[in-house]
Amino acid sequence: MGWIAFTLMAACMQAIRVAAQKQLSGQMSALGVTFVRYLFGLPFVALYLYWLGVDFALVQQASPVVWAWILAGGIFQIIATWALISVFRWHNFAVGTTLAKTETLLAAVFGALFFGLSLTFMGWTAVLIGMAGIICLSWPARVHIRNWLSPATLLGLLSGLLFAVNALAIHHSSRLFDLPPIHAAAVVLCSMILMQIPLMVLWMTWREPRVWRDIRQHWRPGLFIGLTSAIGSVGWFTAMSLQNPALVKTLGQVEFFLVLLITLRVFRERIQRREWAGMALILLSVIVVMQAG
């Protein structure tokens, strides 16, 4: 049952991080907001890896295939995060955000087709109920044809697809290490960030050099995003090393409860009947997935 605790921790931290990233997105580009989570998160992840006392002699024995999977997963995560943050910049972001959450269903389908990660009947039921809950929560009241033809839709689909592949890459690469699952997950996480940072540094220096000034000016919120990202990533990576990523992502949808709680208590916004129905469906999917897991 350890994967459940790690998933709940990750979902909580992700809700906080995304809220902070959304606020920071008004101060710097989507690429810059994406980068701060890796830059400021790395020291915390490195400390965690050191605290675990990982046997690096076993790490060095890993085949090149492992590192290729980690690199691919890291690239997919960068593009997926950039696409999701870019969705926030569009007025009709509701459709795009909903489509980004198809990562759960896509992880289940791709996992079964290409990674041998089959789900039981209850597992598929949990995934589908969770998707229905997400649609109820985030689907806009009025949908016009222009919503489907907007960049937000394409970015949302891209984000969901790449997050799903990233989750499967994390699961697969962690299983290829001859290490305990928690240690393997930490190695994959730290290695992925170390690969992501140089790639983003080169790209930003070429395409968005002014982002360095923005990061220096907003290092305090960047540090907070890095901390919450590191804690959340530890939870996600560990849970996905222990369990089918589709089930992890389904349980992780409890993040929406925290988001709606903030909406209700902090911003005093009213929760609609459709949103209550969505939360009920997500709660049902969580109950089913815990039985299936």
UniProtKB/TrEMBL annotation:
Q: Which UniProt keywords apply?
A: Membrane, Transmembrane, Transmembrane helix
Pfam families the record matches: EamA
**The EamA domain, residue ranges:** 3-138, 153-290
Ranges that cross the membrane: 30-53, 65-85, 105-136, 148-170, 182-203, 223-240, 246-264
Keyword Transmembrane helix, does the record have it? Answer: yes
Q: Name one GO cellular component term.
A: membrane
Entry superkingdom: Bacteria
Q: What is this protein called?
A: DMT family transporter
Which species is this record about?
Natronospirillum operosum
